[in-house]
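**Archive record**
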Amino acid sequence: EEKIKQFYNFTTDLAINIPELQESVYKEYLLYRSLLDDYYEQIDQAAIVPMEWEAAKELGNIDPIKQRPVIENNAECNLFHEYLLLYREKNCQRYICDWLDQNSNILNKKNQKIVLNLNNARFAVLRLEQLLPYNVTKVVDIISKKEYLLIDKGINTTQKEGFFLICSIIEIGNYIMTANGGIPFNGYSREGKAMLTIVAKHLKIFRKARVPLTREVAAGVKEIY
């Protein structure tokens, strides 16, 4: 209970300046999101499907009779695939980084920036602070202790100020976007308290990490997911 109160009362040392929000920035975000969706589609069969069962066993979302992952909706699917690509290792690096090394021809002038930034996506626990125009939400990241401007149409339209969002984030200029979605939740709900309790357990490890993925970070993310 005390940790959860701290998550709600936590403030950053330096408040972010909210710039004049421009439609052109939102259009840039839409382009990057579209390019990222196309990228995920291209790696789906080649990279994701072959390791779904092993990853599902790690997370516990398995149907032992049908021998397949149990996924209830698109949000769960997005987080499941995010775990596969960002928090499992191959050849001592993120699976998605290793796959891109073997398939660098997928890069082009349009998608290069967002694809390479995805490789450096990091785990975040965002507190949704303020809804702004052009689907922007001012957020506080409990892990980095910083404020950000998150552009995400789905999150903004949920109208859930004060909720938390567990996700992985990509930094793009003066804003961030989610790597593959996330699920907002009320920290005072039964499920929310459970989530934040596990976050509190791993918080020091998340904050000490100097790179987006370490084995300790992966273990923490696995328990949360």
The radius of gyration is 17 Å. Residues 23-48 form the longest helix (26 residues).
